[in-house]
TrEMBL record:
This is GOLI4 protein. Residues 61-113 form a coiled coil. The keyword Coiled coil applies. Keywords: Coiled coil. GO terms for cellular component: Golgi membrane. The keyword Zinc does not apply.
């Protein structure tokens, strides 16, 4: 009986110890489930936040990509416009250079013609002065001859035999 009582007491202690272990195990299991649930919620929240950030970054990426494409297109358009304007500038410059060369040639030709004209006019002026001088000399000679004739005429008129 004494041995039975010891076994019973020992068994009773073991059952209480087992009960206690089961209680602690149950509490630990509950704590673990709470922890697991909280961790799952935190993970889900983190996942949701990450998905939101990813969505925002993705839409921002699309916007920036579209802007990049627009800027590339604008750059291409501006490069084409620049090349067109460059070509137009080159053509205009060539046209102006040709026109300038033509005008320079015309000016040089006109200057040469004017110099020739001035030279001819000077020569003509010399000839006219010389002719004027000769005419003036002839006129003086003629006046002198007329004066001489007039004197002769008066002298003849004064002569009684001529009358």
């Amino acid at each position: 009986l004494s041995a039975s009582l010891v076994v019973y007491e020992h068994r009773s202690r073991l059952e209480r110890s087992l009960q206690k272990e089961r209680g602690e195990h149950k509490k630990t299991k509950e704590d673990f489930l709470v922890y697991k649930l909280e961790a799952q919620e935190a993970l889900n929240k983190e996942k949701q936040d990450s998905m939101n950030r990813y969505g925002a970054l993705s839409s921002q990426h699309k916007i920036l990509k579209n802007q990049h494409e627009d800027v590339k297109k604008q750059l291409l358009d501006l490069q084409l416009q620049h090349n067109s304007l460059k070509l137009e500038h080159r053509k205009t410059l060539e046209t102006h250079s040709q026109k300038y060369a033509q005008l320079q040639q015309e000016k040089d030709s006109e200057v040469t013609n004017l110099q020739d004209t001035v030279f001819k006019l000077r020569e003509e002026s010399k000839l006219l002065r010389k002719a004027h001088q000769e005419v003036h000399s002839q006129l003086l000679n003629a006046q002198a001859q007329m004066e001489e004739f007039r004197q002769l005429k008066e002298a003849l008129q004064k002569m009684p035999s001529f009358k």
